[in-house]
Structures are given as C-alpha cells and as structure tokens.
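Researcher: We plan to redesign the surface later, but first we want a full-length starting point. Tokens attached.
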C-alpha cells in the first residue's frame, strides 16, 4: 500500500525513499554544493545563515613553496539564493596565511575559492545565476 499504510493503519511517519539524506552535515554540504568544506547553519525568522570554511591542509606559499604560518581569520558575507521564504547569506570564513621565508616577497594572503563567488563580488555564484 502507498503512503506508509500497513494493514489498514496509517503509519506515524511516511516511508522515505532509500536515497533521502538524513545526516545534517551531509545535507548542509549537499545544499551548499561544495564537498570539501565544513558547513554549519543558523536561522532566524527572516534569514538563513550558512557558514562555510575550507577543509584543507596547511597552505604553502604560491611564490616559494615554503609552508605558511596561520595568521587568523577573515569573514566575508555573501548574499545567497533565498531558502523557502527566508533570505539567505553565506558567511565564508577564510584563513589568512603568511609566508615563513623572510626573503620571499609574497608576504601574506587570504585563501581564495572561486566556487563560492568571483573575487570582490557580494553574491554567491548560485545567487548570480
């Protein structure tokens, strides 16, 4: 019988298809669409906040290849597509790095990932479509 009925009685919960994801972390990753990020959410009546950060190892300097020193965090807020009746914002927590080689002219940098948004944009790629 369809709709979760068994022996003439209604089930308290519908039978879910085998492909439905129920793990909250996996659901967030599927929603954001980036497999190698750490994702968290919070919500108010008006807005859904999606918080992401890259799940990557210690960076190396692009100029000289020396392992970088972690320097801190920088958060960027990007407007995202609405989620139901709520507006949504993606809070991208970027790591700041500094080259450990004193002779290198690269200095410091903030990690980039153009899958979230184009550089210097205020919209996510999804919202810009």
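Model: Full-length starting sequence:
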């Amino acid at each position: 019988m369809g709709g979760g009925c068994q022996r003439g009685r209604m089930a308290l919960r519908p039978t879910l298809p085998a492909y439905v994801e129920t793990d909250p972390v996996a659901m967030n990753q599927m929603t954001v669409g980036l497999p190698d990020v750490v994702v968290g959410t919070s919500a108010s009546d008006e807005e859904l906040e999606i918080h992401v950060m890259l799940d990557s190892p210690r960076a190396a300097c692009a100029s000289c290849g020396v392992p970088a020193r972690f320097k801190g965090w920088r958060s960027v807020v990007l407007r995202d597509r609405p989620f139901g009746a709520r507006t949504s914002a993606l809070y991208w927590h970027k790591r700041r790095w500094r080259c450990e080689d004193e002779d290198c002219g690269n200095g410091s940098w903030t990690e980039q990932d153009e899958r979230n948004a184009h550089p210097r944009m205020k919209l996510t790629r999804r919202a810009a479509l």
